[in-house]
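Message: A physicist's question: would you kindly supply an amino acid chain plus fold tokens?
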Amino acid sequence: MELRYGINPQQLVASAVPVESGRRPVRVLNGSPSYVNLLDALNGWQLVREAGRVLGRPAAASFKHVSPAGAAVAGPVDEVTAEAYGVDRARVGTLTSAYLRARDADPKSSYGDFAAVSQPVDAELAEVLTRVVCDGVIAPGYAPGTVATLGRKKSGRFLVMEADETFTPPGQEAREVFGLQITQQRDDVPLSPALLDDVVCGALDAPATEDLLLGLAVLRHTQSNSVCYVRGGATLGIGAGQQSRVDCTRLAGAKTDTWWLRRHPAVRALAFRPGVRRQDRINWRIRFVEDDLTPDERARLSGVLSVPAPDLTDEQRTEWLAELTGVAFASDGALPFRDNVDHAHRHGVGFIAEPGGSIRSADVEEACREHGITLARTGLRLFHH
């Protein structure tokens, strides 16, 4: 498979060669992938395939720069998501609901994403993908006519890839870095509810178990260090690729707060002038929530609103954030200090899954007991690099 270019355009020569002769995990139906497109597609497909299998529902992910901006399984689409993407929430199909819930986790980051879904793309999802800024999609199949519909996007350059559901990768994987080939056994430990049997404090109910399993599937395909917050079968915030785990926790927590604050009546009351684009409305609501607008941004926001922005005071923010509860939190590595628990508690977390085994695991457990958080130790590290 010849690629358009490598990680950067100046890396002109790039290709992908099957490890086993004649076995390709994916094929290109439209467009021409770059190196990063292919990484996003392969990581995204593995994530949704695993999440779909372990949870028994259609799964979707919105990938950017080889990590998911959001991931979800099929479920109810709330009014905020439906309004943002111009759909009738009462009529949304299951596969489309999974993708919209995944994209709405961090819609600013999902701008120009690579979509991955665990089931064949239907006409409804194809139509949604034509209306959002998205660079490509990978799926195990496509309903008749959907490839042609998607192929007209981006002047014919929209990337459509089909995954082979029957493909099993080799037991060993390798990569070359600076003249060395590094080989390791593939991480193929299956995810299942049994991973959450070691509950050291509190109790897990069925919804929390599902959310933690989705979180583990997400982390397995997210650049480490990583953590994620999950609620109702959808990620609310993912912190990826940070050197300090507590920075992951704080970054993902801030994204979770933004997701929840976007549902505040004052934010929903922002009245945009006709002609303001969908993504611009989304971005302005996020910037309004983040509450650190520059003078230039304040002037431009006023220019796109038909009436002045309503007040959203610190007291209102605090009261609204206190209503977010029942959030699940998963970590790809052991929590090294209790500060991760203290910060997670501030974002409505009631359930935590982490490998355990840190020299300060007793401190982590104590913090969970203090905050009334259920703690499950998986014994499974899920680093991904």
